Amino acid sequence: MNILVCISKAPDTTSKIVFSNGNTTFNEDGVQFIVNPYDEWYALVRALELKESGGGKVTILSVGGADYEPIMRKALAIGADEAIRVDSDTRDSFQIASEIAAVAKSNAYDLILLGKETIDYNGANVGGMIAGLMDYPYVSNASKLEVNSNVGQIEREKQGGTEVLEAKLPCVISCAKGMAEQRIPNMRGIMAARSKPLNVVASCGAGAMTEVVSFTLPDAKGSVKLIDPENAAELINLLHTEAKVI
Amino acid sequence: MNVLVFADSHDGMIAKSAFEAVTYGSKIAKDSGGSAAVLTYGTISSDSLNELASYGITNVLHCSQLTDMDPQQLARLLAAASGDQQSELIVFSHDYTGKSVAPISAARLNAGIVSGAIDYPETSAGFTVKKAVFSGKAFAQVKINSDVKVVSLLPNSVGKTKTEGTANVTEFNPDCGAPSVVVKEQKSKGGEGISLTEADLVVSAGRGLKGPENWGMIEELATELGAATACSRPVADIGWRPHHEHVGQTGIAIRPNLYIAVGISGAIQHLAGVNGSKVIVVVNTDPEAPFFKAADYGIVGDAFVVVPKLIEAVKALKIAQG
User: Fold this and answer.
1) Does B200 lie in the same domain as B166?
2) What is the pTM of this model?
3) Is A243 on the interface with B (CB under 8 A)?
């Protein structure tokens, strides 16, 4: 099976979020970048498990500049076979999905996996857009995936429960908790990753449909109002009369 | 602008989150002098369809031929309805179905999308919508430059406004193509009560409770408040509570009106899942717990003493309210 895993880079969860250029740009100074956790823990690891049990190849794909290569090497160290970087700015989900679809259309991937969303823009759009552009089945927020003779058996989250469904390959699946467990790359993987192919391809020139005009930070939280534990009932009174939430 | 709202349905009923999306779409259409319509699908009772109409849009397109949540078929349905209504703005709720169908629709309609919008659009210079980014640590104003625009609204962002209205239902069954997925089985999470992602009030607990046998008082407080229950990741990982209750970065993100956290220290990964909550209450024995910095109200104290007092106080409040 030929699996494509789309990988995004994201600031580490504990990063301090600061903006520059009049609050129009995320300031990357001093920020530690990681593989977007949903792409890594769930999509990539499940792809590797499917390859280990059924054979095939796992290719990772990122849309971005040369600054993406460290996180791509990490994905190779975890076990992906090869990498493709579409050399391009990243502007919005439509542009990224169009670049990925352009690569996918010229390669016969059986499965396109990615995380349910990125932890920076939290869009949850790219997977569905690839499916829309390729006319492939799309299953989002999947927590289980098995493949049997060209049919994916998938469990997805839904309101108040889960749903078991089948989709014919090729298809696009966005991956959530339950799909796999995080893998830490070992020294052999890290050494091997250095010599695995990382191919840089030109952008297809896709345009964006949206732009970020400005960023803002939340208002500083007022200090917490502490209530004496002996008088805990006062909390319920405050929630009723002051906060008016109950 | 002409607005089309996609309303999801479950078990014969319009999804609760759809009423807020209808309120949102109705106001935008009204303010801009456009028309508004709702698109829904599945087997839905006429009472539920009429309830839909009481949030400001009476023109309802109903597709009864589709019953499964097949994202490709629903995106084709939506594209057909959008053409029929000459829609310029498509509104979804940013729930599981919205996350599946909205991006495919955007690709099909060649439309820019803002997913997880938290406010009405700013239209003085183009069309700009606010959304939370960096897992709630910041906000972005995002401008949509395409002719047709797609917005998915984060639940519990603008509230819903009930008016009077009777649905004017038109059956709408265009060609939606062959099914792309086959639903084999539905699994309910079981347990009674309120779905966590749709709950207005949530009571959550963590390792501070010391063991799964101590959750009775958390459930009782939740029942008295009419709240859903949730938990932190460690508690789900060691099996004290089911995984679907886990809120946080790797679990689910919620934004209720009230989030009460008992015995949860408030690691940044947990906060990422709850920092959209309107009011946060923290009960913890450790005054240095980081969660207090994100809280509106706090009690430094033992959960086993505090929670029973809260239960009694809620009961007393309910009696006082009659």
Assistant:
1) no
2) 0.93
3) yes
